[in-house]
Amino acid sequence: MAERRMFTKKVTESDAFLDMPKSTQALYFHLNMSADDDGFLNNPKKIQRMVGASDDDMKLLIAKSFIIVFDSGIIVIKHWKMHNYIQSDRYKPTDYIEEKSMLQIKKNKVYTLVSESDTECIQNVSVGKVRLGKVRLGKDNIYIPYSEIVDYLNLKANTKYRSTSSKTQTLIKARLNEGFTLQDFYTVIDKKVAVWINDPMMNQYLRPETLFGTKFEGYLNEKGGKNGSNSGNNQENQSGVYDTSKIEYQGPGTTDEQDPDF
User: Fold this and answer.
1) Residue 251 lies inside a defined structural domain of this protein
2) 68: pLDDT strictly greater than 90
3) Helix (H) or strand (E) holding 156
4) What mean pLDDT comes out for the span 16-41?
5) What is each CA distance from 230 to 22, 58, 152, in whole angstroms?
6) Helices 166-177 & 146-157, crossing angle to 10 degrees?
7) Is the residue at 86 inside a domain?
């Protein structure tokens, strides 16, 4: 296995990356350094503990689509092929053949999950913008990122809302039908957390029914707050155990939009 690892500035100097806390960025670099020659590793929790990163740091990397998590607990660096070119005489194929078979490499060298019917998944990352794209709602096997959105709200606002709530899912689907993107949800959450989190009168409104309701577009276009600021609490799960079942990618979907180049 090659001992050297490289990083492209197209990723590490993008707004999406630099807006994350320094501790999250550091965890990303260490995960890259420990990955095999195809970008896979089976011990993300060990690396997290070694570098003193919190569960929130790991969850943020997943929510922002910098890593992909499999049911087996294996993770892969989404932009590995953008970062690294390994000469054939030094390359050692990954042992995680099953997980690798669940991926395709797009033209911009980004790993993307695929379904059994080879439909493109929805975890797309661009400069400063994690995209949902134009999702065709109302058809079979459509993936809607309820978990990513609600988990991100819980992460930023220190709340415990469920992504399975029918009311919450109805609100999210309505906003997606209006053409808003996954990044738009992150932006609204970031802006309102920055303004309301320390206000005893307003922090009660950091909830899906308020944030994702009919005032969503107004919140999105408000001045002030920081777009993708990652403000708010970054509290570590007291159990010290990273539970991938609550944050990992839930399944494939269809999109009309291609993975954009950095």
Assistant:
1) no
2) yes
3) helix 146-157
4) 94
5) 11, 14, 10
6) 110
7) yes
